[in-house]
Structures are given as C-alpha cells and as structure tokens.
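Below sits our specimen:

——
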Amino acid sequence: MDINNRITETATELFVKHGVRSITMNDIAAEIGISKKTLYEHFLNKDDLLVKCLDSLHETAKSEREEIFSKDGFTIDSMLEITRKSAVRINLINPNFITDIKKYHPQIWKNKLKKMENDTIEFKVWMIKEGIKKGLFRHDLNADIVSKLLHEQINLLINDDAFPADRFSRSEVFQTMMGIFGRGIASDKMLKKLNKIEKYMSNKSNNF
C-alpha cells in the first residue's frame, strides 16, 4: 500500500471512530509512524485529507453495493446483504463524525458531503424502483418519498441525542428500523420470504 493510501485509510478510521475535531494531523502522523512534515507533503491540510477520506468511504460503499448486485442480481438476499453491511458500517460511526463536519468544516459539508448524501438518495430511489419492478415492494409506492424517508431515518439513527451510544446498539437500532420499514414497503412475496428468514433465525438461536 502506498503512503497516500496508508494516510487516507488511517485518517478515515480515526475520524470515523473518534470524530473529526478531536483528531489532529499530529495524531494521524503518529498513528502511521511518519513525521508531520511527511504528512503535509502528501496533503495540504486537514480539510484536504478529510475530503479524500470522504471520497474513500463513499467509493467503498458503492463498490460493496455493485459487487453484491453483480454477483446475486437484484434479489431479496442481495438487499438483505446490503442491509447487513450497512448495519455494521453505521455501528462504527461516531455521531461526532457528521456533526463535526457540519459545524467545523461547513464548506466540505456543503460541497462534498451533501453531494454524497444526494448520490445515496439517488441509489435508494433506484433500489425502490427496481424492487417495485421485481415485485418485491408494493406497487403503489412513491420511490422519491420512500427513499427520502429512509434516508432521514438513518440520519436519526446516528443522532446521539435520539439514540445515545451508551444506551443503544446502533446495529440493533438499525436492524429494528429496517425491519419495521421493510415490512411497511414489502409486497406479499417479500413478506413471505422475510417471515421464513425470521423463523429460521429464531429456530437457530433457540438451538444454542
């Protein structure tokens, strides 16, 4: 792995885990084992590095989705796999990560993170429309409204005031939210599949 990728990967992990404000360029350099001077030879400043980190997070999520759909097609199982990966990713995000960007890096929020949010909403619109075509979601849904509602629920999930990290597991909240939301938009065909999965998981847990 080249030095740029090492820096980006390390900084992303630190920002996501601890928030952006609490992590300095010194912290990142120390974690990698390089000098601060070397760090600044590759990135102009913290904003420059943060933008690269956000690009990396966005591309990773897109690559995961594309890999799952290219392998399995648009199926119930592929959507469940994307949901599982999303739950794992969200559980790792410190709520301060988004809050710090909005408050202390407003231009990055305006120019970069907002575009990423819009791209994510567009993907959700596509997913809802595909699900309707495949008979997995109810045919009477407005994809734009459903995708926006889903996106806002996920924003609520990473709001530490609503779900304090010391009281709630984000992955559990996410799975609960998706279970309720998923059943609300599911067709009869998908509900039968979800019932089978839940019955299987219940029987499996009872065997331990």
